[in-house]
Design brief:
Elements: H1 9-16, H2 23-43, H3 47-63, H4 70-77, H5 80-88, E1 126-135, E2 145-149, H6 158-161, E3 174-178, E4 184-190, E5 195-196, H7 202-209, E6 215-216, E7 219-225, E8 232-238, E9 257-258, E10 260-263, E11 266-267, E12 273-274, E13 278-282, E14 285-287
Parallel strand pairs: 1-13, 1-14, 8-9
Antiparallel strand pairs: 1-4, 2-3, 2-7, 5-6, 7-8, 10-13, 11-12
The structure holds benzoic acid.
Benzoic acid is lined by residues 73, 76, 100, 102-104, 197, 216, 249.
Length: 292
């Protein structure tokens, strides 16, 4: 292990991990080191570039806390989240596709009953969302736990507006519901618009330097869990919306694009009479049976 040179460094690092007890850790770290060294050789990484990368990762760490997850943003914008999601969520056809989780889910969001308004005071055009949670054979899944979260009409999530607070009472346009005995669910919210990912930090500056925009197409996030089934993490995107072909985090799947139908003022699905236009969205989610 003396006289390690350019040609022997990779093998020396790989050999140093031979005794790791955790075989998976050894496999992953060996492969990572080999790829990292190949990358440095291929681009002939300079010392200055190496140090800029260290400073960049340091800045990513400094801005990250329990509300701002810059590392997930980095993974999302480099397509790593989409790759890992895709290769770990292959399902039989007919099941709803998964897509990125993103960094803006909040634990402990308020629970709602079917038909409730999850906007919790956020302003925007009303949007009535309904659907069913089904098994691949078409049978309804009762009591599925449905988490939903979205941005508001100003393109912000509640946690971005009130970074100092994650109190349940202040949650807006997010919540938890259950499917009924026939698998149905419905709720009222506001129309979600296209929104930029948080781009005032190092990841935003990187996107800028790469000539990339930070925008995501309009979408609702869903996480649906039921005993005996794989938990589904996905989005529903708005057909016709901007950025469907250039999502900053590469999360769009054609099967997840749905029509959000605009209605003139009149009687809404919940029976109320609305003086303004409103939207409806209907989508059925099909869960994959868990392998036992
Ligand atoms: C989002 O869906 O809002 C989101 C996803 C990835 C990164 C940032 C935001």
């Amino acid at each position: 292990m003396r006289n390690i040179i350019e040609d022997t460094i990779t093998q020396a690092v790989v050999a140093s991990m031979r005794e790791a007890e955790d075989a998976r850790l050894r496999t992953v770290m060996t492969c990572l080191v080999q790829h990292l060294h190949s990358f440095a050789r291929e681009v002939k990484l300079t010392e200055d570039e190496w140090f800029r990368a260290i400073r960049f990762l340091t800045a990513v760490g400094h801005i990250t806390d329990d509300k701002r997850q810059e590392f997930i943003l980095l993974s999302d914008t480099l397509g790593l989240s989409t790759l890992v999601t895709a290769q770990n969520n292959q399902k039989p056809s007919g099941c709803t596709e998964s897509t990125d989780f993103g960094p803006l889910f909040v634990e402990g969001a308020r629970e709602y009953k079917s038909g409730d308004d999850i906007s919790n005071g956020a302003s925007g055009e009303p949007c009535f969302v309904s659907g069913r949670v089904l098994s691949a054979d078409g049978s309804p899944i009762a009591s599925a736990r449905i988490d939903v979260w979205q941005s508001d009409e100003d393109a912000f999530y509640d946690v971005q507006r009130r970074p100092e607070s994650s109190l349940t009472a202040e949650h807006q346009t997010r919540g938890r519901l259950s499917s009924a005995a026939d698998g149905t669910f419905n709720f009222r919210s506001i129309l979600a618009g296209a929104h930029p990912i948080p781009h005032d930090g190092p990841v935003g500056r990187l996107l800028d330097a790469l000539g990339r925009h930070p925008w995501r197409p309009a979408h609702l996030h869903f996480m649906i869990a039921a005993p005996g089934y794989e938990t589904l993490v996905t989005h529903i995107f708005r057909n016709g919306g901007q950025y469907l072909d250039s999502d900053a985090v590469f999360g769009v799947r054609p099967s997840l694009i749905a029509d959000w139908v605009r209605h003139e003022p009149g009687v809404a699905p919940d029976g109320t009479s609305l003086g303004d236009a409103f939207y409806t969205l209907q989508y059925d989610f099909v869960l994959n049976l868990r392998n036992i």
